[in-house]
Structure formats: C-alpha cells, structure tokens
Amino acid sequence: MAVVPSGTGVPAPLPRVGAAGDPDVAGWSRRPPTPDDLRWDVLLGVSLFVGAILSSVMWRVTGLIPDPAEGWLSALLLAAQTLPLAVRRRWPSAVAVVAGVAFIVGQALLVPEQLFSNIALFMALYTVGAWEQSRTRAFWVRAVVVTAMFTWLLVSIFLAATDPDEDLGLDRVGAFSPFVAYMLIQLLTNVLYFAGSWWFGDHAWASARERERTAWRTRLLQAERVRAEAQAVALERLRIARELHDAVAHHVSLMGVQAAAARTVLGTDPARAAAALGHVEESAREAVVELQGLLGTLREGAAAVSGVPVPPSAPDEALASLDVARIPRLVEQAVAGGLEVTYQEVGEPARLSPLTSLNLYRIAQEALTNTRKHAGPSARADVRLRWLPGEVELEVSDDGGTARRAAPAPGTGMGLAGMRERVAADGGTLEAGRLRRGGFLVRVRVPVAGGDGAGRGATTGRETTDG
Fold first, then answer.
1. Which of 412, 393, 396 is nearest to 454 (CA)?
2. Calpha distance 83→107 (Å, rounded)
3. Could you tell me which of 163, 148, 110 has the C-alpha nearest to residue 1?
4. What pLDDT was estimated at residue 245?
5. More exposed terminus of the chain, fewer Cβ within 10 Å: N or C?
6. Model's pTM, two decimal places?
7. What confidence tens digit (pLDDT) does each residue in 322-332 have?
8. Nearest CA among 155, 165, 185, 161 for reference residue 173
9. In a 3-state reduction of DSSP, which class is residue 467?
10. DSSP 3-state assignment of 18?
C-alpha cells in the first residue's frame, strides 16, 4: 500500500469580535463553519471524486494492477472515500470513519487508484483534528482509524513477505534485502502521513482558539475603553457639579445675607439698603458669569465629541481667572455681606498650576460659605495663606459664633467631599474639623511645583458634615 502525504490545513474563518465566549474556559468550542466553508467543502468532495475516477481509468489502462476491481465497484468505493468530504466540517468524525473503511476495502479489493484516495483520507483525518468539537472524540476517532490503517499495513507486509508468488522484482535474500528496505519505506511513509494529518489538524484547532482568544481580549479592551470613557465623563460631571455647588452656594448665600440686611435697614437707612442691594447685584452678576463659564465648558466638551469647534467666550476667561489672587476679593465680598473676616498672606508667593490655584480659591470660597451658613453672621473668620518651602497652606477658621454652637444648619455633604477631591487631585492634605475652643477649621496643604511637599492625597482631622 503506497501512501503519499499531501495537503495542508484549510484556513478557518476569521472570528467576529465579541460573538464568542472566553476561549480559555473549559468546554470552549470552535465556531461552526460558514456557508462559504460548506460550499467549498462540496466543491472539494466533488473534485476529488472526479479526479479519483480519472486516475482509476488511467491505472486500468496501464495494466500494472492484475485483476482490478470491477468498474462499478471501484466507482462506488471511490465515491465513499471522496464524496463524504462535502460535509466534513459538519460531521468530521463520521466522515473520517467512512473514508477509512472505504479506503481499506478498496485496497483489499484492488481498486486501481492511489493518489486521490490518499488525499481524501488525509483531509478526513485532518478535519477531525481541526473541527471536531469534542476533543476526546477527536482523539479516539483518529486513534481507531490510524490503528486500523497500520494493522492493515502490517498484515499486507506480512502477506507479501510470506507469499512466494508475490514478485515485486526485489531480492529477498539477507536481513536488509531490497525487499525489506522497500517495506520499511512503506512503513515510514505511512508514519509521516498519519502523523502529519494528526499534527496539522490539532494545529488548525489551536490556531482557531488563539484567534478567538485575540478577539476576546479585543472585546475586553473595547469594554474597558468604554468604561474608562464613562468614568471620565462621570468625573467631569462631578467636577462641574462641585464648581456649580461652590459658585451657586457662595453667591446665593451672600445675596441672601445682603438682601436681608437691605430689608432690615430699608426704612431707617436707605443708603445702607442701597449699598446692600448693590452688593446683591454684584454677587448676582458674578454668579451669572461663573455659571456661563461652566456652561461654556460643557458646550466645548459637547463640541469636542461632535467635532464642531466653539470659540472661547469671555465668561470662560473669567472663570479661568479664579485663583488664589482673587481670595482677597473673596474676603471683601464676605465682609460686605456682614461677616467679620480677616485675611493674612505670609511668605513669598510661588507659581501654582491653574488647577491648583482654582482649587484653593474654591476651597476658601466653600469654607467661608459654610461659616456664614453654620456659624451665622455674628461669627468671626480668619483666612490665612502661607507660602512654605515646597508647599502652600490655606487655612480658614472661625470662632463658631452662636449658630454653630447651637444647632448646625443642615447641609448636603458636598462641601467637604468637594474639598477632599480637590485636594486629592493636587496631591495635598486636608484637615477639617471642630476646634476645642469652639468653631471650625479647614486647613489645606498642597505641594508647589518643584517642591518636595507634604504627604500625597491624605485627609486628616475630624471631619463633619457640611453644606
């Protein structure tokens, strides 16, 4: 029996990203063949059958095979070996068994064909390794077929060696006679043939699994990117919410105090009432400017997504100018609103990043707003800005007045949370809590660019719920 190794693996279809599960879990199976794969299989089976018939006719013409099988029987056995390949990816194990049985029967009945029948058997065994979903079944089906083939080969070699009438024109004398060498060549050829079909099949299965693994990881990366984008949007919304909270709470609280003062002195001191109303107007104007700046930020973010450019506006520039240099102005507004506040700046100012400078301004604004809300207008507050080696310290404290010592006003809890997030973004420390002598303290330390600074992102002190 002369067996000629031939053929290579059939490429598997490209995976659709995200359509399959994790290929590393137990029980993973390869994607079913596509309609194009099935059509190519039909073409393969029919082509091999036509080729096998033509090869069989030519072998008969040569007359090298004495007493070959009848033509109709040869055609039937060749059909059984080749035509099942039309459904090889649907039922790979069944096709391999049918092709193997038909191959052995054809050899036993001297069907005059060697080339295409060997190709068909190779493809059948390869397909079991490449497409059989049950890997246990794939192993045992190939093991049974290969064992049967080698059993038939050894029986054929034994019969040829013991039959004196078998004449191949080869000398049989000696332990390593030409006849023995010929039989060893047949044995080696079959070993390479079946080992090749086994290895190529398993390699095709492993390659398909690796493609699925790559597709699965691509899906995970895409999901992670979507999650990161959603987190970035959420963080931006939180930042804008903090900005809105700081701007609205400060200005509305200040306008409320000034409006109350104007109403109190409206009948007795119109000049003071007019001044208070002027402060209300100014606070309202500044609140509108800051809100427009935040809305401009949102508009620019939406334009970045849609790709439509939006020119910067004056309110955006006004919002960007909120920094530590505006803290004295913030103190003046608080004093104008009836709160007794002192301001002190110590040390040589250093360069701060725009974000850090804005965060310090907002923290001072929020702390003064909380003092006015919780301690009342009778409280006394101190604001200190200290420029230290490698860091800047902002401290806002109050004496508690009467309202904080009595019953704190209810708050939303966003104040301290917003401060904490701002300080963490700058890699600084936050200390917030009640003082033993009464009152409340907010102390922030933020590293200055180029300095060694203090601890990173720490929050200490006795925190309380604020507005």
1. 393
2. 18
3. 110
4. 66
5. N
6. 0.52
7. 788 889 988 88
8. 161
9. coil
10. coil
